[in-house]
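look at this stuff:

>
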Amino acid sequence: MTTWNPWHGCTKISPGCDHCYVYRRDAAFGKDASAVSRTGSFFLPIKKNRQGQYKLQPDGDFLYTCFTSDFFHPAADEWRPQAWAMMRERSDLRFFFVTKRPERFPVALPKDWGEGYENVHICCTCENQRMADKRLPIFLELPIRHKSIIHEPMLERIDIRPYLENYHTAIEEVICGGESGENARVCDYAWILHTRMQCVEYNVRFHFKQTGAYFKKGNRFYRIDRKDQMSQAAKAGIDFQPSIPPLELE
């Protein structure tokens, strides 16, 4: 997994931010995670070696972008045009980032964006029903070629049927995951299965990413080490890959 964090730091705006891992990590080093700053990795996608070749080469996976901030954070408005320009230049790389601020999408948008860059995948995170109903009506109307939804940390059962019904052809994937850290809130397996059921109903890809640190299944509660949270989710075997309808013969 290759990451690119052009800026670092964020401000909390909703319940999903309460136990943010960026704040935990920065606190451990005596840093203030709410102070947003451009990083030394800002120009990573376009750095070249002595032979004039890009150091960062495609590896078949996404380049996970801005995972220690929010790409649309207002403090990054002055840097975002350059970031878009690097994404445009590196059309051979696939950039993936997650946002809680879809309403800020138009700010500093490149003039040639059109319906979106083919190599940019944007994911909107909705940790509860209130955030889903606030963010998804905005996000799903935006001109983005590749869109997905993530419930992480998933804090309650969430109904996204209205959005799947109206936008299922535009939503490439729905992802669920619990919360990490010592103070993690519970993630109920029943909530995960409920989201999966909705995705199956509308033939949208579903991925159970991680259990989180505090997981409930049936009437039992589990404390799960960080190193095991993704593997335990994988063992559930509930990921869903949509079927492709056969071509109709003339």
